[in-house]
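Field reference: sequence -> structure
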Amino acid sequence: MLLKTTELEERKEGKQLYDYQKGAIEKIFNAFDDSPEDYHLLFQLPTGGGKTVIFSEIVRQYLKNHKKKVVVLTHRIELCNQTSKMLTEFGVANKIVNSKAKLDDQKEYDCFVAMVETLNNRLNDNKLDISDVGLVIIDEAHYNSFTKLFKFFYKSFILGVTATPLSSNIELPMTDNYNELIVGESIENLIDNNFLAKAEMFSYNVGLTSLEIGANGDYTVKSSEDLYTNNEMLSKLMMAYEERCKGKKTLIFNNGINTSLFVYDLFRSAGYPIAHLDNTASKKERESILRWFKETPNAILTSVSILTTGFDEPTVESIILNRATKSLTLYYQMIGRGSRILKDKTTFDVIDLGNNFYRFGAWGSNLDWQRIFKSPNYYLDSVLTDEIIESNFRYEMPASVRKEFANSKEVYFDINETYISSVRKGESTKVVLKRSIEQHATICIENSEDVFDALILMKLLDEDIDFRIHRYSKCISKSTHNFLSWLKDDYKKKLRSFIRENFDEIQIKLKG
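Structure field:
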């Protein structure tokens, strides 16, 4: 047997294990005990559950009971260094195999930690002897870059670990490369037992129909930046921050460096403490920024990609998803950055500006990982499209704007319902916007003393107007950029004219 349970209790090195971690280790070793030497096992555990702790203990126990070696693979240098440090804490002497590492002392080590690309190059050049490697552990195993190394370890146990057992490439499902999945503790249980903080989700509806899907199956950086750098989205971001996150340590995730720089300029000009970080930063710059972020209570850090894995900062109080993604893994990774518990921190805020909540459900909801692993297409096909998500949106005025229309019992206008009604009556679809304009004019007038007040109030309706125009364009199946721009301008002109021409008449009706 590869592991004696009593040995877990006797271990003094490294971090102490929780019961659920001990249980996971026992299941993993039992699976290997009952399987051939080339078995491929996948283990799922949420971000913050201690995957590195678990596989470090597995390495320690494996080396204690076997005369074979271990290789641990990561996909980023930061993870490489963190993993090496954790293994050392567990009493496992290890060598990092990077591009600068000299391997003339490799016989002195039983454990190697390597980045996938570096190891691939070293193995192709026959620079590393792996003839006696019995166990290979792959961190963040959902990335398909690791699979090219499998041919080198055809006689080794392979243990992949991930928070989301869903391949980064839908054409290469994980079930093709792993024989079995073991599901660890759920997010819900980890929250209930005070191992993780609970996410308080706040979703702001965003029109995403302008986004394009790239070859990797996710939204392209260019189309994302076109959307998230426009004034409307930047204003929505600032409004969401000030409503929910002001004064809290906040991480903002973006899809594109330009977007992050726009966000940086926006918050900096507003006087908020903010820093920008992307993968072009030097190691020294990165360390300086992360130190500042850690030490500054109400700091804001806007970033691109780089902090989704290998970054643990328990003081984070708010996460803002200033992007949309089709990747369930990325969704969980981003939110997971705020889930670390700390002293009295039991909850953290998540602001969703990409309709991700509607696409994937609440972070921590019970997903059937076994079914997702075995039938990824079944899961992916069930994810709602942007069109379906947006068709169910109902515009809600921000609280600060709604106060200005306090005299109006109802401010919502259902474009879809009005469109369907007009079609059934055989009316021109133009009456939809005509009635919308009349309703907008009415709520402006009933909250004003004169025409000038009403026209000022009208300026607060830009977001609502945008929402109605987009919804109308969907109804008539016409949504080119030029058409929408013209339609919005025309709507506002007609609304201004209607207010001026009908102010007195509408006031009389309202008072009568």
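Note: Residues 399-511 form one domain.
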